[in-house]
Design a protein that fits this description.
Helix 1 packs across helix 4. The longest helix is centred in the middle third of the chain and has 14 residues. This protein is an alpha/beta fold and about 230 residues long. The chain is globular and about 40 Å long. The strands form two sheets. Strands 5-4-1-6-8-7-9 form a seven-stranded mixed sheet, sandwiched between helices. A two-stranded antiparallel sheet has the order 2-3. It contains six helices and nine strands, in the order βββαβαβαβαββααβ.
Length: about 230
């Protein structure tokens, strides 16, 4: 499949109004932050960073941030890696906490650790975090809102979207679980080992009626970004 290219590569990006951050929660209301993992280098996409893939005229990372905000995440942290400087230059990420993972090539686990460390240092002290991936544009705000609601203010919450009964993203971790998740996050497995060890505690939230959990991994998947 021929990779998509802009109609006029020399033209500057079309200015857009960034998604407004969700309204700050009222005092005493539990804070569920969004954590977007967007560090991948797109090895099977010819080395095109996934964060910068074009989607509706803008970098894909902007869409993923918008989804988290519209799903109710007032605090959003974004982990960059491949071509981080280019992403910062081209993508509108104002209002986000943007951190870089120098070991991004080692897999998702290192990005998850970097993101959780960033959240732990945030003075807004989130009670839970909802983790999403930049390369899943079929998962929108409705799924984010459903999984976010599963936190119910509990710092030990553990929930995940499911699609026809199969666990997927986004995944929610209460703050009391972050250290354990980070300790087991290695390579490309991310939080899989932690989730497998705590499968009986996971609240599965069916989202198959509002989202599609496909990944953009290869050039054959790029058609999903069209339109």
């Amino acid at each position: 499949m021929t990779p998509m290219t802009p109609a006029n590569p020399a033209a500057p990006p079309t200015p857009v109004t960034p998604a407004a951050p969700a309204a700050p929660p009222a005092p005493g209301t539990p804070v569920v932050a969004g954590l977007l993992l967007a560090a991948g280098g797109g090895r099977r996409l010819g080395g095109r960073p996934k964060a910068l893939l074009p989607y509706r005229g803008r970098p894909l990372v902007e869409h993923a941030v918008r989804v988290l905000r519209e799903g109710g995440c007032a605090v959003v942290h974004v982990v960059l890696g491949a071509s981080a400087e280019r992403v910062r230059e081209r993508a509108e990420l104002s209002g986000c906490v943007v951190v870089e993972n120098p070991d991004w090539a080692g897999g998702m686990g290192s990005s998850l650790r970097v993101g959780l460390a960033s959240l732990a240092a945030d003075p807004r002290r989130a009670d839970a975090v909802l983790v999403s991936l930049v390369d899943q544009p079929g998962i929108g705000a409705a799924a984010v809102a459903r999984v976010r609601a599963a936190a119910a203010g509990r710092r030990d919450a553990l929930a995940a979207a499911s699609y026809d009964g199969k666990r997927g993203h986004p995944v929610l971790f209460g703050a009391d679980r972050w250290a354990g998740v980070a300790a087991g996050a290695e390579g490309d497995r991310g939080a899989r080992d932690y989730l497998a060890a705590h499968r009986d505690a996971i609240a599965l939230v069916e989202c198959g009626d509002v989202a599609e959990p496909f990944d953009i991994d290869t050039e054959a998947d790029l058609y999903r970004l069209e339109g």
